[in-house]
Design a protein that fits this description.
Length: about 350
């Protein structure tokens, strides 16, 4: 009996474990999760800020480029050559400086356009071509020469050439078509000749072991190619072309200078240059004088008005852009056969 009462009074052991409070590891999970959430939110907001900033910069750059091109357009319209006439009596001045070539300021297109504006201006009593050029393209020079003769006959205005430092080769080709040529005593005048220059790299290529692989259709299609040897027939053909252009040059000078030219002068058409003082003696020039002298004493209109056609900023950028585009296309297509 005693045993049974004792058993009845003892606490009963449950078959299940009692509830235990969470340990320290479980308690640390909640702050860690909150920290991760806060960090992700910060990263997300930072990414949004960067995207907004990048978007603002893109908009700003686009607006800046738009403003830049609008400014170029405005400069192009405002700084272009003037087509208005000047009713006051003056001397029209057209500069021919640098190489005479199609893509330069001293191109036939620019010079002829300026001459046309000057000839049609009633206030222009005469034209002065202010020359400082070593020469250039005989084609461009010939075009200018023809227009000088045509416009002078049509409008009845005199055209004079005034030489600064140099008037050689194609520049003298143009000057010889004017009514008179004025020079400084130290100017360099003449160079009545034609040249064609290039380099030959065949020997160097053989020494370094480089092989040129050129396919052509036509026996002389690689004529004047610097990486191919020149034979006697091609050299003779090139010389014939040069001699023919030289004769054209000589004929233009004789026609323009007439009896003033002392043709008996040795080496007159050999390509040599003379000082301005010597040029006057042998008939390549008429007298010493500058642009102010010609305007004041010859044309009798002392005021000078510049008619030179100059590219504005927009045109220069457009030319550079178009040139780069052409070069890119040529690089892309350089492997394809072409007719040139």
């Amino acid at each position: 009996m005693t045993d049974s009462n004792t058993d009845r009074n003892e606490p009963q052991m449950s078959s299940t474990f009692p509830f235990e409070p969470p340990g320290p590891a479980a308690g640390a999970q909640a702050p860690a999760a909150a920290w991760e959430r806060a960090t992700l939110e910060k990263l997300a907001f930072a990414a949004l800020k960067e995207q907004r900033a990048a978007r603002r910069w893109k908009i700003f750059l686009r607006l800046a480029w738009l403003a830049f091109f609008c400014a170029l357009l405005w400069l192009g319209l405002s700084r272009g050559p003037s087509t208005t006439t000047n009713s006051k009596s003056h001397t029209a001045v057209i500069e021919i400086k640098g190489e005479i070539a199609n893509d330069n300021t001293a191109s036939a297109e620019s010079i002829i356009s300026a001459m046309k504006t000057a000839f049609t201006d009633e206030g222009a009593k005469g034209l002065v071509l202010l020359i400082n050029s070593p020469g250039g393209s005989p084609v461009q020079a010939g075009m200018v020469t023809d227009e000088i003769k045509r416009m002078r006959a049509k409008y009845g205005k005199p055209v004079y050439a005034v030489v600064e430092e140099t008037c050689a080769s194609a520049a003298y080709y143009i000057a010889s078509a004017t009514d008179k040529i004025f020079v400084n005593k130290a100017s360099m005048v003449g160079s009545i000749g034609v040249l064609m220059d290039s380099f030959g790299f065949t020997g160097v290529m053989n020494k370094v072991g480089v092989e040129r692989r050129l396919l052509i259709s036509g026996e002389h299609k690689n004529f004047l190619d610097p990486f191919s040897p020149m034979n006697d027939a091609e050299r003779a053909h090139a010389q014939r072309m040069l001699d023919q252009i030289h004769e054209q040059f000589i004929g233009a000078v004789k026609a323009g200078r007439g009896d003033r030219l002392k043709t008996q002068t040795p080496d007159l058409f050999s390509g040599l240059v003379w000082t301005g003082e010597e040029a006057v003696d042998i008939g390549l020039a008429d007298q010493l004088g500058g642009v102010d002298y010609v305007a004041r004493e010859v044309i009798k209109a002392e005021e000078l008005v510049d008619y030179t056609q100059r590219d504005n900023i927009a045109e220069r950028l457009a030319k550079k852009f178009s040139t780069s585009m052409v070069e890119t296309m040529l690089r892309i297509e350089h492997r394809a056969p072409s007719l040139r």
